[in-house]
Amino acid sequence: MRSSSSVHCMAACAVALSVIVTDAVRAQQPPPQKYEIGVMPPGGPPPRLADGHVDFTGHWFPNGAGQGVSGRYGVDPAATRQFDPKATPEEPPVFQPWALAKIKSMTPTELELSKSSVNCMPRGVPAIWLQNPYTTYMVHKPGLLVQLYEVLNNWRLIHLDGRPLPKDPEPFFHGNSTARWDGDTLVVESVGFDERTYIQPNGWFHSDALRVTERYTRPSMNYLIVEVTVDDPKVLQKPWKSAPRRWTLGNGEIYEFYCTNNLELEELQKLREKELQEKGGQR
Amino acid sequence: MNGRRARCAVLVLGALAAAVSHAAAHHSFAAEWDARNCRDFTGVLTKIDWQNPHPYFFVDVKDANGKVQSWSFQAYSPVTLRRNGTDRQVFLDHVGKDVWVRGCLAKNGKPNAAAAGTLKFSDGVLRQVGQIQD
Fold first, then answer.
1. Are A216 and A188 in contact (CB under 8 A)?
2. How far apart, in whole angstroms, are the C-alpha atoms of residue A253 and residue A58?
3. d(C-alpha A230, C-alpha A251), whole Å
4. Is B96 exposed, middle or buried (0-12, 13-18, 19+ CB in 10 A)?
C-alpha cells in the first residue's frame, strides 16, 4: 500500500498534469475555460474635456486587463498583450544595410546591455510605448497632456497649443514635441532625441534624424490606443509603423520605481569582454 | 518539508509554471543568476529589505549538517509584487515563520544568495515573487 504522502503527491501531480493537458487542449480549441483575470470590456463612451476634446486622463496599464498581470495565475493570454499580432500584424523594420550589419555584429551581452530594463537608462520616446511593462498616468487639461511614467519615475509634458518644433532641438530622452488634433485623434510629432536610447530591445538604435509620430485615441472609457510611426531615414529604408497598441484603464495607484545599484552591469561587462575576445577582433 | 514532498512540489510547480502569466523582466536575470542551478529552500523568514528595484528577503536555512545559514533572495520589483498580491505587509506578516522558496543561485558564486521564483508561506498559498527561469 502506498503511503499517504505518496498518494497526496500523485494527486497533486495529477492536478499539475491536468494543467499541462489543459494548456495543450487550449492550443487546439477555442478557449472554453474561465480565467480569473480576463480582457477588460471597452466600457462606455470616453470622457471629454470642457473644450470638447477626448480626455486622456487615467491610469493606464500596458495590457488588456486593467490591472497588473505579472506573476499572477489564471490570466487570459489575450489580457496580457497589447495587440493581437494575427489581427493587427506589425511589420518588421527595414534597416539600411549598414544599420543591419551593426545590429548583427552585436554580441548577446551587448544586446542585453542595450536594453533599458538592464542598463537602467530612460526608455525614451517611442520605446516608452513599445517596451514598457509599467503603468502610465495621464493628466489631461485643455492645452496640456501630462504623462507620468511609473518606470524610473519619468515624466513628460506635451503642450497642445500647436507650438512649432525647434529648428535645432536639444536632444532629450522624450524628444521635443508638438501636438495637433485630427478629429478625436491627438497627433504628437517629436524630434531631437538622445541617441543612447533604443526603439526596441533587439538592438534597434536610432540616429539624430529620428522623427516620431504618436497617434493617441480613446475609443471608449477603458481603452487608450497608441500608435507609433518611426521615421529615421539614416537607419531605416522606410518609416516603420507600430500596431495600434491598447492600454487599459486601471483604478490603482501609480507607484515609485527606480532602477538603482544595478550590480548586474558589472557582470555583464565581464561577459561582454569575454565575447569580444572570443570573436578575436572580427568586427 | 521532507525530500519527497520537496520533489513533489518541484513537479507540481514545474507544471503550474505553464499557467502563470509571464512576468515583466526587469534586470537581466541571466547575467547574475544561474537558471541551471536552482533548488528548493525551506527555513524561517527572518527579515526583509524592501527597496527598489528589487526587494530582498532573508531565510534561515539548515544545511545538510544541521547548521543554520542565512540566505538572501532577490524578488520582483516592489511595484510588481504589490500588484500581484504579495506586498511588503504580506512578507512582514510572515517574519519568524516557516517559508518554502524555489530559487536560483548566483552565477558568480556569491555565497548564500539566490533569485527567488515561487514561494509558499505557512498559509500554503503559492506565490510568484520572482522570475521563473527553470
1. yes
2. 11
3. 31
4. exposed
Which CATH number is B3-128 given? 2.40.50.140
Q: Is B40 exposed, middle or buried (CB count within 10 Å of its CB: 0-12, 13-18, 19+)?
A: middle
| For range B57-85, the mean pLDDT | 95
User: Domain coordinates of chain A in residue numbers?
Assistant: 58-250
Count of beta carbons in the 10 Å neighbourhood of residue A194: 18
User: Are the beta carbons of A117 and B27 separated by less than 8 Å?
Assistant: yes
Cell numbers at A156, concatenated: 513628460
User: Tell me: the pLDDT tens digits for A162-186?
Assistant: 999 999 999 999 999 999 999 999 9
If you compute the radius of gyration of chain A from its CA atoms, what whole number of angstroms results?
22
ipTM of the complex: 0.79
Predicted confidence at residue B21, as pLDDT, reads 60
Q: What is the pTM of this model?
A: 0.82
Q: Report the run of H or E that residue A98 belongs to, with start and end.
A: helix A97-104
Q: What is the pLDDT of residues A118-165, one digit of tens each?
A: 888 999 999 999 999 999 999 999 999 999 999 999 999 999 999 999
Chain A to chain B, count of Cβ pairs less than 8 Å apart?
A: 125
Give the alpha-carbon dihedral of A192, A198, A204, A206, to 10 degrees. 20
Cβ atoms of A78 and A65 within 8 Å: the answer is: no
The domain segmentation of chain B, as residue ranges, is: 3-128
Q: With the C-alpha atoms ordered A11, A12, A17, A20, is the resulting torsion angle positive or negative?
A: positive
Contact partners, residue A32, CB within 8 Å, separation at least 6: none
Give the Cα separation of A60 and A254 in Å (integer). Answer: 9
In A, residues 216-245, which contact B (CB 8 Å cutoff)? Answer: none
Of the two residues B109 and B129, the one the predictor is more confident about is: B129
Q: Which residues neighbour A12 within 8 Å (Cβ) at sequence distance 6 or greater?
A: B8, B11, B12
A274 interaction partners in chain B (CB closer than 8 Å): none
pLDDT above 70 as % of chain A: 86
- A134 to B79: CB separation less than 8 angstroms, yes or no: yes
Which chain B residues are within 8 Å of A110, Cβ to Cβ? none
Q: Which residue of B has its CA nearest to A13?
A: B12
**Are A193 and A214 within 8 A, CB to CB?**
no
